[in-house]
Structures are given as C-alpha cells and as structure tokens.
Amino acid sequence: MTMLKTFPKGGLHVPDNKLSEKEAIQSINLPKTVQIPIAQHIGAPAKIIVERNDKVRTGQVIAKSSGFISANIHSPVTGTVTKIDTFLDSSGYKNPMVSIRVEEDNWIEEVDLSTEVNSEITVSKEEILQRIQNAGIVGLGGATFPSHIKLMVPEHAKAPEILLINGVECEPYLTADHRLMLEKPDEIIIGVQILMKALGVSRAAIGIENNKKDAIKILSERIKNIKGIEIVPLKVKYPQGGEKQLIKAIIKKEVPAGKLPLEVGAVVYNVGTTFAVYEAVQKNKPLIERVVTVTGKSLVKPSNFWVRIGTPIEHLLQAVGGVPENTGKIINGGPMMGKALKDYTVPVTKGTSGILLIPKEKSNRRPMQPCVRCAKCVDVCPMGLEPFLLMALSDNKLVERSKDDNILSCIECGSCSYICPSSRPLLDYIRLGKADVNKFLKSQKDGK
Amino acid sequence: MTDAILYTVGSLSGLGLVSAFVLFVVASKFKVYENPKIGQVEEMLPNSNCGGCGLPGCRPFAEALVEREDISDLFCPVGGNDVMKSISTFLGKDVAEKDPMVAVLRCNGTCEARPKVNTYDGAKSCKISAMTFAGDTGCDFGCDGHGDCVAVCDFDALYMDPVTHLPVVITDNCTACNACVLECPKNLFELRPKKKKDLKIYVACMNEDKAGIARKACSHACIACNKCVDVCPKDAITIENNVAYIHADLCTLCRKCAPVCPTNAIIETGFPPKKEKTEVAPAKVSTIEELKLN
Known about the structure:
Distance between the termini of chain B: 124 Å
Structural class of chain B: alpha+beta
Number of helices of chain B: 11
Oligomer: heterodimer
Largest interface: A-B, 17 and 15 residues
Strand order of the largest sheet of chain B: 1-4
Structural class of chain A: alpha/beta
Mean pLDDT of chain A: 92
Number of domains of chain B: 2
CATH topology of the largest domain in chain B: Alpha-Beta Plaits
Distance between the termini of chain A: 57 Å
Low-confidence stretches of chain B: 276-287
Shape of chain B: elongated
Number of helices of chain A: 14
Helix content of chain B: 25-40%
C-alpha cells in the first residue's frame, strides 16, 4: 500500500464523528422570516439597495458589493422587506441585516431551474468571472473570501499552474462537503473545468481525505475521460483541509508566511464553492443556498440540509426535532474551529457549514492550569509555531516579538488548545495577539 | 622575589595608566552633550512611568519638556498642576493648567440589574471575551467583568467589586493616567473632572440599543427617555445613539437630573447624603399646611 499524501508538520487525529455521512441532503421548508446579514464575507460589507416594504423575488440582488473585496448578496426568498436593522449574528454582536417576510418562492426569470446537468462550457473567460462576481460567490469552506478575486490574477504576479479543490472536510462531525461530492459529482467536475478555464490552467487536483472512500470512488469514475483532473486521496489528519496544508500535501510546496497560495502557483477552491460556481455559470443561479450539517450526538437524527441563506438556526433545529434538553452549547461550524452561538435566532450565512450541538457535560471548558512545558502544542502545530510562547507573548503585550515569532502565520485550527493537558486557552490568546499585531502594523503603516 | 613583585606592580600600573588614557580619549571624543536640566526635570516628575502624558515614560517626557520650545500641549496627569507649575518656573516656559481628572466607569450593570443570559467559560480576559462575543448578558455594551482594567492600573486605583462584578475606581488613588480608558475593550471608562471633594454626576450607561431592548437587558440602562434633558437648566445633557451624556464643562452639579432618571442610570458621587434636602422640604410644606389648617 502506498503512503497517502499529507502535510509534514504537526497535525493530530481527532475522532471524526461523522454522524450524518449516510444522510442524503434534504431540502427544508422555508422559514417565516429570513434575516440576511450584509457582511457575510471577508472585506467590505455589501451596500443595501432595497428599502422597507419593498417586494423582493428569489435571487434578486438586495445588497451590492462595495469595494474591491466584497460580494453581492441576493434575496433567498420571495417576500416583503420588513426591517433593515441590526440583529445578532454568529459573531456574537449585532450587525446590520435585511429582514424579509417570506411569502412564496418565485425565482427571477434569468435563473435556469432545470435539474439536468449542463456540461457544455460555452461562456468566455471574462463572462465566467463576471457571473461568479454577480452571483456573490464566496469561499464556502468557512473563510468566505470573495471567489472572483482569486480568479483575477494580478499582471505582475506569477501565473497559476494548478487548481486545487478542497474536498478534505477534516473538521469532525461536518459532512456537508462529503454529501455534496456524493450527490453532485458531475456538477462539481464541471465546476472544476469552469474554474480551470477561467484561470487558464491545465491541471487540477481534488484533495479528499481517505475516510471518504465513496466520494473518492464516485469522483474518480467521473474524471476517467477528462484530461488534467486528478483525485488525490489524503491521509486522515487534522487540519488537512487548511489551505496551506492542502497545498503542501498535494504539490509539496510551502506557501511563504504572509503570502497567498498563488506564490507557489496554486489556487484553492472548496468543493462547495466549486458547485456554486457551476450553478452560477451554467444555470445563472446566485448563491442563496448551501448545504448545512445539523449534527450532535444527542440528536435523534443528525441531517444534512439545503438551507437558504438567512434561515434562522432555530428553524434548522426544529427540523431535526428540537434542541435536546441537556444541550450545553450550540456551535456554528465544527468542534475544532466553530464558534459557540449566543442565541439560536442567529441566521445561516454563506460561511455556515454546520450546526453542532454539544451536551452540557461535554461543553464546559476545564479550568486553566499552569503550563507544564510538555510541548505538545509545539508538536501538533501544523504551521510549526510555538503556541505556548505566543500565548505568553500575547498576554504580556510583546507585540513586536510575537510578530517576529510569526504569530500571523497561525491558521487558528485550534489543535494546540485541543491537545493542551493543562486546558490552557492558547488559541484565544493567540487570536488576541494576532489582533494586536495587525493593529500595530496598521498604525505603523498609517504613521509612514 | 622582590623583582617579581616589582614587575607585577609595575606592569599592572602601566596597564592601568594606558587604559585610563584610552578611556579618557574615548570619553572626550565621543562625549554626548546632554542638557543637565533633563535629569533635574525628571527628578521633579512622579517617575511612575505610566505613559499618561502620551510619551513612553518620564525620561522621554522630561526630554520633551526641556527640548521643545512650546510645551503647552504637554501635561503630566499624575503630578498635576503643582508639578507642572514647578517645572514651568524651573524651565521658564508656559505650561497649560488642567483640571484634575478622574476615571469613571460608565456602566452600572450589576449582577442584579443585568441578569446573565448565557455562560462564558473562555479565557479570563475582557479583550478575549469581547473578541468572542458581545458578552454573557443581554447588554452588548456593558462591562464584561474580567478585570483587564484592574490589571493594567499602576496606581492600585481599581478593584473588582465581588458583589456587583464591576470595577470600582478609588478616586484618591486615580491619577487619570488614561491606562484603563485605553485598555477597556468596551470603552467604558471616561476621564471626568475631579471637582472639589470629588463631586461628579455622570450617566453610567453606554447601551446604544433602543429603550425596550436596553431596559430588558439591564434595569440600570439609559433608555433615552429625555427626562434629564428636559430638567437640565444648563442644556448640559445630550442624547446620542440612545444614550444620554452629561457634558462636564456645562454641568453645574445642580443635581436635578439624577432624581428624575427612571432607571437610576445617572450616578452622583461625593455629595453629602441627600436626606437633608428631601427631609427639610416636606417638613416645611407640612408646617405651612398646618398653619393653613389652623
């Protein structure tokens, strides 16, 4: 047996708990109201172009991208705008949102709603970019970086050589990408071809963790007659799905600190994003729904759903039979990188890949103990950092030293906090340190 | 035997003399002139190195005082007017005179007034808590209560009240160095003039939510009801973003606003207990009534 590819430094094995991997993606009935945040992506928040009492149709733009790094936001339902106000979102703060009362589901005319697979790529390179931009597609893996920007290769930059598709889904519990690969393999492959055309590359690789053998098999069958695309099974190791870890595993190149993957000739898209690209380019469909895994050991039936953006998480929890009584935390995302929610009125956004319920007895953090210098955090850090040191530096506000110790390279995978036998909140402090360093760099830049 | 001793003494003294000469040459060649006044001014300063003046410490502040022509924008909040005046006479430059200030916490969301709606079990740091979410109570703007301000205070002027879980400013110790103002992730601290006997009236709330939401989250929240604005004879109170603010420069400490506040969001400190006034007034009325009756 050949060794499976993986990244060399750090990483750890977490119980994968993919409870919902056998559950087909179900569609869910529309909620009564949806709340659509205008900042669902990295970059400038979109600018709202509807007003209160406006009638909107499914797929209609309700907030326009403002600035270079930004994305359009579309109405996921047909109904009336009832409120433009601030509501609680998954960040734990109140942010501006558009609230729409759902009346029906009447799509705008331009969208092709037929289910047959359209495999002919007829549109030009520029048109692909335009359609992706119009559809408001952002990275659905969780980082929510506007997708069209990755296609706009700057003139002086290195030309991309390979397109990498991230189907790793190393985060425990989540099965959204896995199910998508099983159920929409043709669409994903066409999506890959569209992106290859847009980038002008002849090679593409789809990285899939080896615990999804059925997905590897099904996609391998589809690419038999297609040149240039390969499926790369990857070793099951967290955080294999990190962008830099994926690049290192597949093309054996390391992205320099503070640089983009393009530096080593790679562009990475998530499989979910690839599917959204297919829908945007071939069907003219904007990004208004995504696959969300609703899971947790206490749930009777963990499931995967096609969810419209803006649906309250409450609605999803009702669809799986309500919140079990002993639930201690509701997490937006997976257990490693996800974030506990303050309330379940929070809407699903473009970056929501799963909702995880943790029972009370498992949810509380253990009290923090002194560091015992076991260096386990150093061992598991996939970026080769020293989390215990970065925590101390951040706690003591040694901003310049944390910068020199590459605190900004941290991908916030949470491996260090997970492994720490003293339950020290390493990642919390590193996040704080990163924020301080960024503030410091900004003040330096402004000063000059 | 004596030779050996003589050689040793001679060579060592020679070495000493040569080194002394080299050091003398180096010292005179690379001498850096430093204004002796800097050292003297530094001694006049409190030497707490708190950074309250905006410069990294007392030495850089002393350098700035001596070297700059115009020092009217420099002020040491710790030393206050006395220190600045003595520096002014020593250097012969004009300095600004400022009212002594004191930090106040603009949140009165005690545990009783502001019930918790969920639990935070992350790192015990306000900054990390504020990065994670808006707080474990219904109020998005209130104190997180992990005591970052207490940790940053160099003058022991803050402590956490174990009952209310809010920091308390010890007015006598507070030097208005601004450290807590900069540290608080929710921007709850403000420097206000420390008038005679520490008389202060301020709105202890920063909740920008609408009245209903704010009141539901905290019974001490400012609900922007305008009552204090109406009652203020000097127009010293304004309401912005659903929060009232008392402008210290206009306020005459007449104490009319605090009693009308329906949520007790306006705090008075340093005043004698109010009982005298309230007791005296009804007593007078009753006597008049009695007189009329008679």
